[in-house]
Design goal:
The protein is α/β, with parallel strands linked by helices. The chain has 2 domains: about 5-30 and about 280-405, Beta Barrel (Lyase, Ornithine Decarboxylase, Chain A, domain 1), CATH 2.40.37; about 35-280, Alanine racemase (TIM Barrel, Alpha-Beta Barrel), CATH 3.20.20. It has 12 helices and 21 strands. The chain has helices at about 20-25, 35-45, 65-75, 85-90, 110-115, 125-140, 180-185, 210-225, 250-265, 275-280, 310-315, 405, and strands spanning about 5, 10-15, 15, 30-35, 55-60, 75-80, 100, 120-125, 145-150, 175, 190-195, 235, 270, 285-295, 300-305, 320-325, 335-340, 345-355, 360-365, 385-390, 395-400. Strands 4, 14, 15, 16, 17, 18, 19, 20 and 21 form a 9-stranded mixed β-sheet that branches. An 8-stranded parallel barrel has the order 5-6-7-8-9-11-12-13, surrounded by 6 helices. A hairpin with a 6-residue loop joins strand 14 and strand 15. It binds ligand LLP. Ligand LLP binds near residues 58, 102, 238 and 277.
């Protein structure tokens, strides 16, 4: 589906003109499409029909409560990486019993919180974490459901900052150590072995790394079964890539076909942790051109969104499409789309052919994932509002922060 498309010469979100949202809520502003969120979740879930599975949305991609609410209503589980994310699952009406807890640095407080909430599984990433979890669970009179996140040492062939399954990476336990760790966990009173987990990276656009990693992990599952350690689920993580520019993402039907092949005749439930795939295309960042500043070397369009709103271009040199909300047929010039923040890295897009005028509205595409989620208050900039469109209805799902809210938790020194 195309949730953001031109109608009568104007970019819309579903049936709502983006210009009307800018008028009502100001810019910069994130706009999400409920239909696009639901469409992506259903496409994945339907593709896996008949295979016992649980989709656990990796909410780090977009943790807005309304986004979580949309997925929870569809029966989604969640992948979390902090106590704060668990609190969001609960606040949004999600089911902790369908929630897996990933991350290399779980604190004692987070372990207690997750045990009390009754999560589905802790994805344990080191022997030290296993020991801590066993102790915390026993002290609480509980048994912690665990799987080990195994590092399969497979190259996902993506940006180095988002590759996580190589042996140089901080994530997971070494493939060669996994059997010994399972044996150790099997003898612990505070933990109960439930599954196994991998996550090799993000924005993956090839099937081969998935195949290689999954085969390695299923081989471990069989070796464990040979020792009498039977697993209930196999969690293959997230990582499905999307198209920002000209990438060719893996079609969901091919991904599902691979999974069906791998799990044919097996008893374990398949767990997945997709983030980006479910939300990236469902969002745009609306911004307005404040000034045009043509120059001798480059022409700058200074907009009211900045790297604090959308960090991906500055951090990963990521490319996001930029479209005028009301395109003009005039002759384009090449523009650097930059924000007002005092850093040369404060660019949202480079060298774009656009016909621009001050006051124009632009939509920055594929901004549903790792966009608002990675925003900050740098330069004391209030975080942007978030709006969810549902057909012809518009819901403000996070209002714009005020300047006072930014420093509300701070204080000056005593006089
Ligand atoms: N599971 C685990 C354990 C993860 O660490 C991640 C993402 C996911 C699932 C979801 O991966 P996805 O399906 O979204 O690829 N900020 C970066 C992406 C960082 C991804 C971190 N981990 C970006 O903007 O591209």
């Amino acid at each position: 589906m195309t949730p953001f498309a031109l109608r009568d010469g104007e970019l819309h979100a579903e049936r709502v003109p983006l210009a009307s949202i800018a008028e009502r809520y100001g810019t910069p502003c994130y706009v999400y499409s409920r239909a696009a969120l639901e469409g992506a979740w259903r496409a994945l879930d339907d593709a896996l029909a008949g295979l016992p599975h649980l989709v656990c949305y990796a909410m780090k991609a977009n943790p807005n409560l309304a986004v979580l609410d949309v997925f929870a209503r569809l029966g989604s589980g969640f992948d979390i990486v902090s106590g704060g994310e668990l609190a969001r699952v609960v606040a949004a009406g999600g089911d902790p019993g369908k929630t897996v807890f990933s991350g290399v640095g779980k604190t004692v407080a987070e372990m207690r919180q997750a045990l009390d909430a009754g999560i589905l599984c802790f994805n344990v990433e080191s022997e030290a974490e296993l020991e801590r979890l066993d102790a915390v669970a026993r002290e609480r009179g509980r048994v912690a459901p665990v799987s080990f996140r195994v590092n399969p040492d497979v190259d996902p062939r993506t940006h180095p900052y988002i590759s996580t399954g190589l042996k140089e990476s901080k994530f997971g336990v070494a493939h060669g150590d996994a059997l010994a760790l399972y044996r150790r966990a099997a003898g612990m009173a505070g933990v109960a072995i439930r599954g196994i987990d991998i996550h090799i990276g993000s924005q993956i656009t090839e099937l081969a790394p998935y195949r290689e990693a999954a085969r390695k992990v299923l081989d471990l599952v069989d070796r464990l079964a040979g020792e009498g350690i039977r697993l209930g689920h196999v969690d293959l993580g997230g990582g499905l890539g999307v198209r920002y520019r000209d990438e060719t993402p893996v079609p969901i039907s091919e991904y599902a076909a691979l999974l069906r092949g791998l799990f044919a005749g097996r008893s374990e439930t398949l767990v997945l942790e997709p983030g980006r795939y479910l939300v990236a295309d469902a969002g745009v960042l609306l911004t307005r051109v404040e000034y045009l500043k043509p120059g001798p070397a480059k022409h700058f369009a200074i907009v009211d969104a900045a790297m604090n709103d959308l960090l991906r271009p500055a951090l990963y040199d990521a490319w996001h499409g930029v479209e005028p909300v009301r395109p003009r047929p005039g002759a384009p010039m090449r523009w650097e789309i930059v924000g007002p923040v005092c850093e040369s890295a404060d660019f949202l897009a480079r060298d774009r052919a656009l016909d621009l005028a001050a006051g124009d509205l632009l939509a920055i595409r594929t901004a549903g994932a790792y966009a608002m989620a990675m925003s900050s208050n740098y330069n004391a900039r209030p975080r942007a509002p978030e709006v969810m469109v549902d057909g012809d209805r518009v819901h403000l799902v996070r209002r714009r922060e005020t300047a006072a809210e930014i420093h509300a938790a701070e204080s000056t020194l005593p006089r």
